Amino acid sequence: MPMKDSWPAFQPPRRLRGIQKSAIRQLFDRAPTGSINLGLGEPDLPTPEIVRRTAARIVLEEQNGYTTHAGLPALRELIARDYADLSPDRVIVTAGSQEALYLALMTLVEEGDKVLLPNPGFVAYPAIVRMAGGEASFYRLPASRDFAFDPDEFRRRLDRRTKVVVLTSPSNPTGRVLTREDLIAIARALDEIGAWIISDEIYRELYYLPERPPSISEFYERTIVIGGLSKALSMTGWRLGWLCGPADVVSSALVLHGYVTTCASTIAQKAALVAWTDEASRARAQIRATFRARRDHLLEMIVDRLERRAIVPEGAFYTMLDVRADGPSWTIAEHLLAHGVITVPGSAFGDEAEGFLRLSFCLNEEALAEGVSRMKSAFQSLRRNPA
């Protein structure tokens, strides 16, 4: 009988090798006690009272066993109303938008398929593509254009091997929004090859433009939409998201969802039924107004106190601080961490964002001011002692 010390050491499967904890979590885990967290994208505002009140009643008064795999029919009907020509049977309620993203990529991507991702883009995209066996390629959202969409660059990156394209609007990390003209250009480009779109719209309700950003699903049939309540209603821990799209894709994704999760939290689903009421709409508008005020306050301090520039976000709760004159983004993020401020190096989101830091304004104005004050001291010390 072989001895235990002769057993082969654990090796993760090839598809998982090299996938590490995200830069966001790495920096957060090493942050000194008392750090100001400008790195994590999690609203600090309370979940609206109507949702909390409803959830409390549900816990006390109702049985809360499994729902159907796809989720409560009444909730799927409410979600479907947000998208043109969508029926409730084409909606899956998921354990947050992250599960919806995983389901979409695992359902659409086969070994060797080419998946076109935004650069810069959310850190999970290339990791999940790799888990699915796909080959990640990238279209640039050029820093020279303040990370706005470039239709010519997008077309250049497409080819007949492109199976899936991922869009994010508003963007994580830049806060930029794809315009109606951008989406029409994307739809026309993809009509030529028939690629699928996964449209990550988790930040769609957090916008600072006169109207809610449009969805590519209005212009392109082969679209799978990812959404949820985590960001717009400060419900990150409730794990309530959704996936919706063409019936055949949703049907296949539902099988995977059933094995991975069974169903999203029944309590969260029932509480989410009130998220489409007038009271919740007012709360959503107030949350938007709060983040807009924080955005404006942070951008003003960046100019006046840090004497630097940042991207003006049209949605979400991030801005990109330009530190190209100071050094590599990871080096600068490490330096700021030593001064008690957590940021995220732009390089974590793709090489197009090298030289920038993602700053989140998920903190009240007093905390934002303290964070900027520490950053000012850190930049002053960097001038005295260059890296």
UniProtKB/TrEMBL annotation:
Entry-linked InterPro entries: Aminotransferase_I/II_large, AspAT/PAT-like, NHTrfase_class1_PyrdxlP-BS, PyrdxlP-dep_Trfase, PyrdxlP-dep_Trfase_major
Key word Transferase present: yes
Keyword Transferase: yes
Signal peptide: none
GO BP, sorted A to Z: amino acid metabolic process
CDD domains registered for this protein in UniProt: AAT_like
Enzyme class: transferase
Coiled coil: none
One Pfam family cited in the UniProt record for this chain: Aminotran_1_2
Entry's EC annotation: 2.6.1.-
Keywords per UniProt: Aminotransferase, Pyridoxal phosphate, Transferase
Family named by the database record: Belongs to the class-I pyridoxal-phosphate-dependent aminotransferase family.
Name of protein: Aminotransferase
